[in-house]
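Lab notebook, bench 4. The sequencing result for the construct came back, and we need a structural model before the next group meeting so we can plan mutations. Quick request posted to the team channel:

Model the 3D structure of this chain.
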Amino acid sequence: MSDYSDIVNSYKDMSVSELGGSLLQRKGEIAERIREIQGMNPPSEAEMQIQQFQMEAQIRSTQLEIAKLEAEVTRLQSEAALNVAKTQSETNIDPQMKVAELQSKLQMKREELELRERLSGMTNQVRRDQSETTAAAKIATAAMKPTGGNKDG
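Done. Here's the predicted structure in C-alpha coordinate form:
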Protein backbone atom coordinates (compact mmCIF):
# COMPACT_ATOMS: atom_id res chain seq x y z
CA MET A 1 0.00 0.00 0.00
CA SER A 2 2.91 2.35 0.65
CA ASP A 3 3.95 2.01 -3.03
CA TYR A 4 0.61 3.51 -4.03
CA SER A 5 0.88 6.40 -1.57
CA ASP A 6 4.47 7.06 -2.70
CA ILE A 7 3.28 7.28 -6.29
CA VAL A 8 0.41 9.60 -5.37
CA ASN A 9 2.70 11.84 -3.30
CA SER A 10 5.28 12.11 -6.04
CA TYR A 11 2.72 13.19 -8.65
CA LYS A 12 0.16 15.19 -6.60
CA ASP A 13 1.53 18.64 -7.55
CA MET A 14 1.63 17.91 -11.31
CA SER A 15 -0.90 18.95 -13.90
CA VAL A 16 -2.66 16.25 -15.90
CA SER A 17 -0.50 16.89 -18.98
CA GLU A 18 2.70 16.85 -16.89
CA LEU A 19 1.56 13.65 -15.22
CA GLY A 20 0.72 12.04 -18.57
CA GLY A 21 4.07 13.08 -20.03
CA SER A 22 5.94 11.81 -16.99
CA LEU A 23 4.13 8.48 -17.06
CA LEU A 24 4.71 8.10 -20.81
CA GLN A 25 8.41 8.68 -20.30
CA ARG A 26 8.40 5.97 -17.63
CA LYS A 27 6.13 3.50 -19.45
CA GLY A 28 8.94 1.00 -19.99
CA GLU A 29 9.91 1.15 -16.33
CA ILE A 30 6.26 0.84 -15.28
CA ALA A 31 5.67 -2.13 -17.62
CA GLU A 32 8.81 -3.82 -16.27
CA ARG A 33 7.61 -3.25 -12.69
CA ILE A 34 4.18 -4.71 -13.50
CA ARG A 35 5.76 -7.80 -15.09
CA GLU A 36 8.01 -8.16 -12.05
CA ILE A 37 5.09 -7.90 -9.61
CA GLN A 38 2.98 -10.36 -11.61
CA GLY A 39 5.89 -12.79 -11.91
CA MET A 40 5.87 -12.60 -15.68
CA ASN A 41 9.50 -11.58 -16.11
CA PRO A 42 11.53 -14.30 -17.74
CA PRO A 43 13.86 -16.00 -15.27
CA SER A 44 17.36 -14.61 -14.97
CA GLU A 45 20.32 -16.56 -16.32
CA ALA A 46 21.19 -17.67 -12.78
CA GLU A 47 17.60 -18.80 -12.12
CA MET A 48 17.56 -20.74 -15.39
CA GLN A 49 20.85 -22.42 -14.46
CA ILE A 50 19.48 -23.36 -11.04
CA GLN A 51 16.30 -24.77 -12.60
CA GLN A 52 18.35 -26.71 -15.14
CA PHE A 53 20.57 -28.10 -12.37
CA GLN A 54 17.51 -29.12 -10.34
CA MET A 55 15.98 -30.91 -13.32
CA GLU A 56 19.24 -32.70 -14.04
CA ALA A 57 19.55 -33.67 -10.37
CA GLN A 58 16.03 -35.10 -10.42
CA ILE A 59 16.84 -37.05 -13.57
CA ARG A 60 20.05 -38.41 -12.03
CA SER A 61 18.17 -39.31 -8.85
CA THR A 62 15.55 -41.18 -10.86
CA GLN A 63 18.27 -42.96 -12.83
CA LEU A 64 19.92 -44.02 -9.56
CA GLU A 65 16.59 -45.26 -8.21
CA ILE A 66 16.11 -47.29 -11.38
CA ALA A 67 19.56 -48.82 -11.04
CA LYS A 68 18.86 -49.64 -7.38
CA LEU A 69 15.52 -51.25 -8.25
CA GLU A 70 17.13 -53.23 -11.09
CA ALA A 71 19.77 -54.53 -8.68
CA GLU A 72 17.09 -55.44 -6.14
CA VAL A 73 15.07 -57.24 -8.84
CA THR A 74 18.15 -59.18 -9.89
CA ARG A 75 18.94 -60.09 -6.27
CA LEU A 76 15.40 -61.25 -5.61
CA GLN A 77 15.30 -63.22 -8.85
CA SER A 78 18.50 -64.96 -7.79
CA GLU A 79 17.05 -65.70 -4.37
CA ALA A 80 13.87 -67.02 -5.93
CA ALA A 81 15.82 -69.25 -8.30
CA LEU A 82 17.89 -70.54 -5.40
CA ASN A 83 14.77 -71.24 -3.32
CA VAL A 84 13.13 -73.04 -6.22
CA ALA A 85 16.26 -75.10 -6.76
CA LYS A 86 16.41 -75.98 -3.06
CA THR A 87 12.80 -76.96 -2.59
CA GLN A 88 11.90 -78.06 -6.14
CA SER A 89 8.39 -76.80 -5.43
CA GLU A 90 6.34 -73.71 -5.96
CA THR A 91 5.26 -73.39 -2.35
CA ASN A 92 7.44 -70.33 -1.83
CA ILE A 93 5.61 -67.66 -3.88
CA ASP A 94 6.55 -64.66 -1.70
CA PRO A 95 9.85 -63.80 -3.49
CA GLN A 96 8.11 -64.08 -6.87
CA MET A 97 5.45 -61.61 -5.77
CA LYS A 98 8.12 -59.28 -4.48
CA VAL A 99 9.95 -59.51 -7.82
CA ALA A 100 6.73 -58.65 -9.65
CA GLU A 101 6.14 -55.71 -7.30
CA LEU A 102 9.68 -54.41 -7.81
CA GLN A 103 9.39 -54.82 -11.57
CA SER A 104 6.23 -52.73 -11.43
CA LYS A 105 8.04 -50.04 -9.43
CA LEU A 106 10.92 -50.19 -11.89
CA GLN A 107 8.56 -49.62 -14.82
CA MET A 108 6.97 -46.66 -13.02
CA LYS A 109 10.39 -45.11 -12.36
CA ARG A 110 11.37 -45.57 -16.01
CA GLU A 111 8.18 -43.80 -17.06
CA GLU A 112 8.88 -41.04 -14.51
CA LEU A 113 12.37 -40.60 -15.94
CA GLU A 114 11.00 -40.40 -19.47
CA LEU A 115 8.45 -37.78 -18.37
CA ARG A 116 11.10 -35.75 -16.54
CA GLU A 117 13.33 -35.78 -19.61
CA ARG A 118 10.43 -34.67 -21.82
CA LEU A 119 9.51 -31.95 -19.33
CA SER A 120 13.10 -30.75 -19.27
CA GLY A 121 13.12 -30.51 -23.06
CA MET A 122 9.81 -28.68 -23.12
CA THR A 123 10.98 -26.27 -20.41
CA ASN A 124 14.13 -25.50 -22.38
CA GLN A 125 12.02 -24.81 -25.48
CA VAL A 126 9.76 -22.44 -23.50
CA ARG A 127 12.83 -20.59 -22.21
CA ARG A 128 14.19 -20.25 -25.73
CA ASP A 129 10.82 -18.97 -26.91
CA GLN A 130 10.66 -16.49 -24.01
CA SER A 131 14.14 -15.22 -24.81
CA GLU A 132 13.21 -14.76 -28.46
CA THR A 133 9.99 -12.96 -27.48
CA THR A 134 11.86 -10.70 -25.06
CA ALA A 135 14.45 -9.89 -27.72
CA ALA A 136 11.71 -9.15 -30.27
CA ALA A 137 9.89 -6.94 -27.76
CA LYS A 138 13.09 -4.99 -27.04
CA ILE A 139 13.70 -4.50 -30.75
CA ALA A 140 10.10 -3.39 -31.29
CA THR A 141 10.28 -1.00 -28.33
CA ALA A 142 13.53 0.48 -29.61
CA ALA A 143 12.05 0.87 -33.09
CA MET A 144 8.99 2.69 -31.73
CA LYS A 145 10.96 5.20 -29.60
CA PRO A 146 11.03 8.73 -31.00
CA THR A 147 14.36 9.54 -32.61
CA GLY A 148 14.50 13.06 -31.19
CA GLY A 149 14.27 14.66 -34.65
CA ASN A 150 13.02 18.12 -35.56
CA LYS A 151 9.57 18.82 -34.10
CA ASP A 152 8.81 21.59 -36.59
CA GLY A 153 8.26 19.07 -39.34
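Residues 116 and 122 are 10 Å apart (CA to CA).
Will bring this to the meeting.
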